[in-house]
Specification:
By secondary structure, this protein is α/β, with parallel strands linked by helices. The chain is built from six helices and seven strands. Helix content is about 35%, strand content about 20%. The chain has a seven-stranded mixed beta sheet with strand order 3-2-1-4-5-6-7. The protein is globular and about 45 Å long. The structure holds 5-O-phosphono-beta-D-ribofuranosylamine.
Length: about 180
Amino acid sequence: MIGVLVSGEGSNLQALIDAGLPIACVASNRAGVRALERAEAAGIPARAFPLDGYADRAHRDRELADWLILRGVDLVVLAGYMHLLTPGFLDRFRDSVVNVHPSLLPEFPGAHAIDDALAADVPTTGVTVHYVDEGLDTGAVIRQEPVQVEPRDTLIERIHAVEHRLLPEVVRELCGAAR
Ligand code: GRF
């Protein structure tokens, strides 16, 4: 079963829901975000784990991992989740956490990948689905797809469209692979 971690809009979560993938639950680091509403509308258990409720991030991540494991999660999908995960969390989901990122990693890691690609004036950027490790967008690449930067004014929409196709595709394959 899949657990999806979110932080905001949740359009990638929606793509996973629409693909009919087996999502056990959705967790957010922020309360009141659109992604949680999308989960609830789909009848999926959803909960916020805001940092200010815990002594530190490690404690929050321990409770988050407990909550996911209790719901049968064996694959964690980061769909616009904007916090780094602590080593304690990753130890409990070894090689079973994946992320979608709007660039061709290792180019343009971090929270502003699309703006960074525009500023760098590269002809091509893209989308990466990768395993998550302790670093910032540094885990092993699973799948990448290039996206031409021009026309620049539609780049964001075109990157999101690729994300919404690529992430469910890869997650479906991972679900079929000995889980
Ligand atoms: C996506 O572009 C994702 O690649 C990035 O943050 C954005 C999240 O969008 N990490 P959404 O919340 O899935 O709509």
